[in-house]
Write a structure and sequence with these properties.
- Helices cover about 0% and strands about 50% of the residues of chain A.
- By secondary structure, chain A is mostly beta strands.
- In chain A, the strands form 2 sheets. Chain A has a 5-stranded antiparallel β-sheet, with no helix packed on it.
- In chain A, a hairpin with a 4-residue loop joins β7 and β8 (about 70-75).
- Chain B is an all-beta fold.
- Chain B has strands at about 5, 10-15, 20-25, 30-35, 45-50, 55, 65-70, 75-80, 85-95, 105, 110-114.
- In chain B, about 35% of the residues are buried.
- The chains are: A mainly beta, B mainly beta.
- The interface between A and B is medium-sized, with 28 and 30 residues.
Chain lengths: ~120, ~110
């Protein structure tokens, strides 16, 4: 089955700095790559996603880059703000019998943005 | 528009009891998935239902069951509760089951087993 790893497990940055979280996956058939943000007491919320035919996608301060050859994708947050503090999860997905809609999450990265 | 709603928000049970958790998907969404999130870990897939049929099942024992109703709401049932079942149970909905359909999560039910 799919093996998903995130690095680092915790990340502490000063407000205004950039943060990068990397997700490595094992299933070469994965073709959908979302990032979720989970705040304390809340469910995960999709913040950005990318499909395998695109190498990079940006949405204001957030971007995702994909390297299909190396089987990893990364979340980039620029000009970090205290409200970016949360746990971030990657969840690569693929088409295939029985797998559609079944997300396999990484173990999460706790991001702390210090004011 | 209302998001995914789950009830109850918190629940305390004792070992051996059973529990029913409920989920209402976003209006128009026909697919509902259930996840278990143990403290400090990522969510783990339990079930997916689409059009009232089970479309996927994760690696969970038969004590876990679910169903989806004609209005697309869903219930997750857990029998013979164990201490290890203590977790946040998340429900997610999407319009259909195709890959790349963003899943929208509720805020979960926090289940504590004493």
């Amino acid at each position: 089955g799919e093996n998903v790893e995130q690095h680092p497990s915790t990340l502490s940055v000063q407000e205004g700095d950039s943060a990068v979280i990397k997700c490595t996956y094992s299933d070469s058939a994965s073709n959908y790559f979302p990032w979720y943000k989970q705040e304390l007491g809340k469910g995960p919320q999709l913040i950005i996603d990318i499909r395998s035919n695109v190498g990079e996608k940006k949405d204001q301060r957030i971007a995702v880059t994909l390297n299909k050859t190396a089987k990893h994708f990364s979340l980039h947050i620029t000009e970090t703000q205290p409200e970016d503090s949360a746990v971030y999860f990657c969840a690569p997905d693929r088409e295939g019998s029985g797998n559609t809609g079944k997300l396999i999450f990484g173990q999460g990265t706790t991001l702390q943005v210090k004011p | 528009d209302a998001g995914v709603t789950q009830s109850p928000t918190h629940l305390i049970k004792t070992r051996g009891q059973h529990v029913t958790l409920r989920c209402s998907p976003i209006s128009g969404h026909k697919s509902v998935s259930w996840y278990q999130q143990v403290l400090g870990q990522g969510p783990q897939f339990i079930f997916q239902y689409y059009e009232k049929e089970e479309r996927g099942r994760g690696n969970f024992p038969d004590r876990f069951s679910a169903r989806q109703f004609p209005n697309y709401s869903s219930e997750l049932n857990v029998n013979a509760l164990l201490l290890g079942d203590s977790a946040l149970y998340l429900c997610a909905s999407s319009p259909w089951t195709a890959v790349g359909q963003p899943q929208h999560f509720g805020d979960g039910t926090r289940l504590s087993i004493l």
